Amino acid sequence: MSIDSVDFFYLSMPKVEDIGDGSQDALVVRVTADGVEGWGECEASPLVSIAAFVTPMSHGACKPVRDVVLGKRIDSPADIAAMAAAVEMECMDLLQAAHTFSGIEMALWDVLGRKRNAPVYELLGYKKAYPKLPYASQLFGDTPAETLAGCRKARDAGYRAVKCGWGPFGRGSLKDDRDHLHAAREGIGKDGTLLIDAGQIFREDVEAAAQRIAHLEDVNTVWFEEPFLGGAYAAYGALAAKSGKVKLAGGEASHNFHMAQQLIDYGKVGFIQIDCGRIGGIGPAKRAADYAAQHGVTYVNHTFTSHLALCASLQPYAGLESHRICEYPFAPKSVAWDMSETHLTPDANGEVNVPAAPGLGVTMSAEGMRKYMVPVEISVKGKTLYKSPAI
Amino acid sequence: MSIDSVDFFYLSMPKVEDIGDGSQDALVVRVTADGVEGWGECEASPLVSIAAFVTPMSHGACKPVRDVVLGKRIDSPADIAAMAAAVEMECMDLLQAAHTFSGIEMALWDVLGRKRNAPVYELLGYKKAYPKLPYASQLFGDTPAETLAGCRKARDAGYRAVKCGWGPFGRGSLKDDRDHLHAAREGIGKDGTLLIDAGQIFREDVEAAAQRIAHLEDVNTVWFEEPFLGGAYAAYGALAAKSGKVKLAGGEASHNFHMAQQLIDYGKVGFIQIDCGRIGGIGPAKRAADYAAQHGVTYVNHTFTSHLALCASLQPYAGLESHRICEYPFAPKSVAWDMSETHLTPDANGEVNVPAAPGLGVTMSAEGMRKYMVPVEISVKGKTLYKSPAI
Question: Taking the model in full, what pTM does it have?
């Protein structure tokens, strides 16, 4: 097959709020190759990722992603890997290229899976997909009472694992943080899996983060996520040496395989969290999953958007039975829900199952997408470089 | 002062060729604060960096750079650092933000220097600026004879240091590479400083790169630049253990301080090459220079564009006397030359001197810029988000 078209659909809620909710907009990608249609999704900043697809070439190692993708062959996983390598070289100096290509790469796997009538996880070499335990991701409340209420709500909704993050954590006193942690534990109950996300609040201050460890241990926290800036591996490594039973987690910002590898090697995280919509797609995510498994680190998806992104993000570790936890969009905005007909609702055991269907196993909803379309037009030298397609 | 306006000027040659010449286009930034004007330049992909300035917010940690900059106070270096930290947090998920902010940050230093009537290197804490030895950067020829001719031309033009890179290197046989290396040495003469740039051609293949070491040593190569993908620190470290007298160089793609730090700590490079137009500007570049100096690593600018970018890129290590080499745009395209009235031509000793003038010490040329202006218009939901300003 050869790649005939790549179309971007920028979807958004009518109003985007200044809160840590990544489901407020989306950049959906449709790839067609010899009549087969595949879908993917880029994480974060739709307009900028579209611009990286169509931008004029700056020089030989700074080309628009379009030039590396359109018209190329796609007959096997090796073709996808070759295209990813070409993006790395020919778009070397185009920083946003990794985000743009991520959604395209997912769609290429979807195309290939549909063509071969096989789920993507099979193309990746897995014989079967194991169920995952979803965790409900939410912000800390403004007060411990709110945190308790939020966690209780998640538990009542059937979640056995809950993540609290951002909000006031790390911004007030140690006592405030402790009170929130105890409230979270009370909310999810004695047996719930509790995960804490610091949202990079301590930047590189190992001592400030280390002061929280005893309190995190007190409430039996499984992981302590992103205490520091994503690239501050030395700080992660220093904290990991002091964090006892609480393991560090991170990696969502990885925009290539090596960043994930380094957070494992140098940052000593116990959980590596990969967003397929940023790391360059499913191929490099699978490589990160393999690397994690070989090094005693648990792989987890990072997904705060749609069920298309969720289906894609589960593929790279679908066959790793002991890597159990998955991030699950707990209360997404309607745009993230309506765009697809397929939804991965937890089963009777409260577990999430990757569809045993061709490709990513997702049926998109043109009608659902149409409601949220954001028309974009980009012109350079008076010539239209990009105009949003209709769906 | 408060930041009143940030304007982008996208300049380009009429035709951009598919060659490794980074001087074919430019994104120049003008910042005004209380009537003081400062200038900076973002490296690579002007349209995408403009999009990152104006893009609609995706969520609280994915805001347009504009929202973090416009209207903010700028009275001291600490204000610039605070703004950089805010970009890191509030644009955390906007990959291109680092490139966009880099040019703005340079312009902020320029504003502050002009306001205080001091060169930027003084604001950075340096008492004086030492002259640098420029190297002429060029591509390997298609044949060894062409490589020889190119290097001889640079020597005849007065350059005591030459860098050859890209082209056929690493793509053919070991013998081909050896022939090119000997031709380069012959061209620059016995005493010239020879630098070799592999342009990431070996990706992660340590063995393939290691096979070149003996030949690099034979011709007395000072550094071996970017043998691998920018983020493949483990490969750099493995090669460094085998590279003998030839030191590794890299770091141009660093888009935050930590990437530079890690290439030093884990990649064991002997030269760290920083592009102020990518790493987030002059502040993080200065931090990289300090870190390099403390760890016995030599700092070098990466500059393949204009003399505005050159003046900015010399500031972070202007006061480090023993860090002697600087990259110098040897044969830039006219757009990169015409945009400024100021040019740093080598002095009688063949050395380059940072201007002892307020700010970055560069006078821009409105007339020169006007010839290369690329008008851009971006509209979202029918509303114009960006339209190129006139100059």
Answer: 0.97
